[in-house]
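How a chain folds remains the central question behind the approach discussed here. The record that follows shows the chain in one-letter code together with its fold in token form:
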Amino acid sequence: MEKKRYDSIDTFKIIGAFLVVCLHTLMEEPLNGYVKTIARIGVPYFFLVSGFFAYRAPEDWTKELRLKKMKNVFKHVWIMLGVDLVYAFSGIFLYEHTLRETVMSLFHFSFVTANFHVAGHLWFMRALICLEIGELAFYDILHSKKLKYILLAVWALDLFLFKYSFLFGFTLQGAGVECLSKYIGTGFLYYFIGWLIRQEETKISEWIEGKEKWILLMTVFCCGMNLLEYHILESYQKNLMPINYFFTFFLINGIFVLLIRYREWGKGSFVHFLGGKASMYIYYWHVLIRNILSVYAKEHGIPKINLLNPIVIFLASIGLSLAILGLKNLIFRKKIRG
């Protein structure tokens, strides 16, 4: 399979990371609602990217590749556990949790399934690990024509059961329902859409050539429709957050197709560097920074909105990410010299 560089995808990662930060920070209304509506594309984007780069052609599925992917699963498990433990034990220092409470929280059902009990945004890693295992187990189906129909069925089912169930006279609620919706409606759907886009990349590239302006107009239209839908649902007091909206699907896919078309967008820029190297650190640690600043604001009588706005958290997350990267680089150099 031909290897290509996608500088545009790395560049947009930093935008995706900022959008994820927006989901977990404070803003004044009505700005808060409108920004978070658009920011819903952040998490799907990272699943799209993961699935896109996970794809391998059928002839490439050798024993060595399977072993490499299995090692990748174990790597992600260790990263997940490490990040989980930092968040869990940070409660001892930030919220005066006892050691017993902290240890018991690690066995809580919501922690094991999606980490809602400690740091809800970390469900991403759990879902990604499950998807990588599923990819190894069902790669024959994933390379067949069935995948397109499976994804279409999953999207329709997700809209009916989770996102717009109130239109049909019922509403499913609870941590288990939210977990299922996120794993299937966001994780599974967008990961394997990314996989499918990579599989059909040549056909897609040929199809979009000369249609770039129309695709851009479609993404702008979908962005506007997302905001309009949010406004309508709010007026009827039908708040679907944190669930993505109908036009989110078309918005994020439109953006992703354009990024593939303009592969060198952002190449060599500092934004490209941050997207490629720091975006996942920002994803992991921005909630911890928010928690620390929240406690600091409370202790010093500072209005939380002054410290917990997305710009402050994002810049602090970039600073921490660059510090981690610098430390890793220093350790790596010492190992080489040693």
Remarks:
- The CA atoms of residues 205 and 261 lie 7 Å apart.
- The two ends are 37 Å apart (CA to CA).
